[in-house]
Amino acid sequence: MNVLWLQAAGCGGCTMSLLCAEAPNVFDLLAGAGIRFLWHPALSLESGAEVRRLLAAIEAGEIALDVLCIEGSIATGPNGTGRYQMLSGTGVSLLDWLRRLAPLARDVVAVGTCATYGGVTTAGGNPSDAVGVHYDGARPGGALPAEFRARSGLPVINVAGCPTHPDWVTETLMLLAGGALTADALDSLGRPRFYADHLVHHGCSRNEFYEYKASARELSEMGCMMEHLGCVGTQAVGDCNIRPWNGQGSCTKGGYPCINCTAPEFEEPRHSFTSTPKIAGIPVGLPTDMPKAWFMALASLSKAATPARIARNATADRMIVPPAPGKPR
């Protein structure tokens, strides 16, 4: 399967994340699945005239384009020309290259939240008029129109994340290589459901504290970060804590709240990422899968039943009260 990867307006963090794939590494994994990069700006040796010849051959139909991957948002300014970002040496904007190549691709994959919905590049007034490949924030229709479909019949596949988990990218590509990714496998925002059907909350190492609403008040503390520190893992899609990054880490495991980076418009939440907005002392954002009244009732009961061990550990930077050994029967 031939993959062409273009980097648009972004930091390149999704490529850096992809390179951190382990067991097996990204190169062995993709080679084993019969996937090869026609060109990747950070990984390929070709540049200049060689890349221009490759693009010309793809446009002429001489080289099959199975998957077009776009990393980074698409700058459409000034005035819709896209000339804020040119593909070096071609005299053509990334916006125009996307619109020329996307109809030729069997599938189009937007890698990272900048490419999927606009992401961080659109924050702060969006001076470059950046949009996602197929979405402008949460609204369908970005650099490509809402009705766009690749040759496979699929819409743009939105592998959202800032950055993406390396496994989300490799699994998506392997499913495409095997012809196993269908429209039913995408959620309402075009994200692959193998990770979007989970919440970041699932598998979180702080779940014991969450169950008793034993909350941390400082970032260094062990307790749940939802009540005071802005964590939205109970609302954010992603299997980050089910399959930790490189088998070990996640934002919440590292002591930082989930900021819902797989969602449109996460980049401007209108409050600090590390502070929970509240009304009358009640967090504004509550778990997506529980009615508010139920949550408040259960939270009150849980706080009243909190074991002393959990209450003390929640506001400590390390475990100070270990679990008591169970009595043998």
Automatic annotation (TrEMBL):
Official protein name in the record: hydrogenase (acceptor)
UniProt catalytic activity: H2 + A = AH2
Positions contributing to [3Fe-4S] cluster binding: 240, 258, 261
Binding site for [4Fe-4S] cluster 1: 11, 14, 114, 162
One of the record's GO cellular component terms: membrane
Chief location bin: other
EC number: 1.12.99.6
All copies of domain NADH:ubiquinone oxidoreductase-like 20kDa subunit, residue ranges: 11-175
Superkingdom of the organism of origin: Bacteria
Protein's organism: Paracoccus yeei
PANTHER family in alphabetical order: HYDROGENASE SMALL SUBUNIT, NIFE / NIFESE HYDROGENASE SMALL SUBUNIT FAMILY MEMBER
UniProt record, GO biological process: anaerobic respiration
